[in-house]
Design brief:
The protein has helices at residues 31-38, 44-52, 123-131, 156-163, 241-248, and strands at residues 19-23, 56-58, 74-78, 93-97, 101-106, 137-138, 147-153, 171-180, 191-198, 205-208, 214-224, 227-234, 276-284, 291-295. The chain is α+β, with helices and mostly antiparallel strands and 305 residues long. Strands 4, 5, 6, 7, 8, 9, 10, 11, 12, 13 and 14 form an 11-stranded mixed sheet that branches. Strands 1-3-2 form a 3-stranded antiparallel sheet, with no helix packed on it. This is Pseudouridine synthase.
Length: 305
């Protein structure tokens, strides 16, 4: 499955843009047969129901029928749907909106984009519905469990200028984390570097021997009663970088459902959010040349003694 590229023959519906799948060369009798085999989690009955409702069409906007012969190469568009989604009882806050950018404070447990069992509850779909911006695109991601700032692009014409800031490291990102603090520990390294690679479990990362590819700057802000507040500034942007680096220092982030122990999926405890906050973002705007800084109104606090 790929994200559709414009022009798209189906409009955004209820905040959800159509998904797209390219038909590979093959010998399926019908397009419907291919879809059933390609997406085994969706029953034939469900696909036929979508087809009957004209919710599946080709790249030319022609609705797919249940008996239409398989054609390759061809792109097929459809609306992704779930039978039911668990509501996430936290709301995002739009901090800034202009012609090019939307800056949002994301609550914990909310994924930035549709993934797995979350579509309508994803931040992107929520914002498309709330703001009426069908072309909204996230410029970067933070983990579903992480709270804090996320930048979104409004216009295709300027999107590339803002996207380039991230791989070119022209944006300063600062996080806060609450971690356990042990007697006898008096400091943290100012900079921590290591090599991160995919773990055996696809959801996690791990440290590995070799040339470092991940770097984090660390400042100890406060320590008392068995916990500490750290400021974390990622120089690189590897998946789960801050969480793995804290773990490697013997300071796993409080309420982390992945590290050190991967908890079963679907067991979110809304009373115990991950204590990791994307606190602030600063960058020189590629359009105006002005320095822009955004800060989350959220605050992390050390547990009471």
């Amino acid at each position: 499955m790929t994200s559709p590229r414009f022009p798209v023959p189906m409009p955004t519906r209820d905040g959800v843009s159509p998904s797209c799948v390219a038909l590979p060369y093959g010998h399926w009798p019908t397009i419907a047969d291919f879809l059933v085999e390609r997406f085994p989690a969706i029953s034939r009955e469900a696909w036929l129901s979508r087809i009957e409702a004209n919710d599946v069409c080709d790249e030319h906007g022609v609705p797919i029928t249940a008996t239409r012969r398989y054609e390759s190469p061809l792109r097929v568009y459809y609306y992704r749907a779930l039978d039911a989604e668990t509501p996430i009882p936290f709301e995002e806050l739009v901090l800034h909106q202009d012609d090019d950018l939307v800056v949002v404070d994301k609550p914990p447990f909310v994924p930035v984009t549709p993934t797995g069992k979350y579509v309508q509850q994803s931040l992107l779909v929520r914002l498309k519905r709330k703001l009426g911006l069908d072309d909204l695109v996230p410029l970067h991601r933070i983990d579903r469990n992480t709270s804090g700032l996320v930048l979104f692009s409004v216009r295709r014409e300027t999107r590339g200028l803002y996207q380039a800031m991230f791989p070119e490291r022209r944006i300063d990102k600062h996080y806060e984390a609450v971690v356990p603090w042990h007697e006898g520990v008096s400091s943290v390294p100012a900079v921590y570097r290591s090599r991160l690679e995919d773990d055996e479990h696809f959801m996690r990362m791990r440290e590995a021997p070799g040339e470092p590819n991940a770097e984090t700057r660390i400042v100890l802000r406060e320590a008392r009663d068995g916990h500490a507040l750290l400021e974390l500034s990622p120089v690189t942007g590897r998946k789960h970088q801050l969480r793995v680096h804290c773990l490697a220092l013997g300071l796993p982030i409080v309420n982390d459902p992945f590290y050190p122990t991967l908890l079963p999926a679907g067991n979110d405890d809304f009373d115990k959010p991950l204590q990791l906050l994307a606190r602030s973002l600063s960058f020189v705007d590629p359009l105006s040349g002005a320095l822009r800084t955004f800060e989350s109104p959220r605050r992390l606090a050390l547990p009471a003694a």
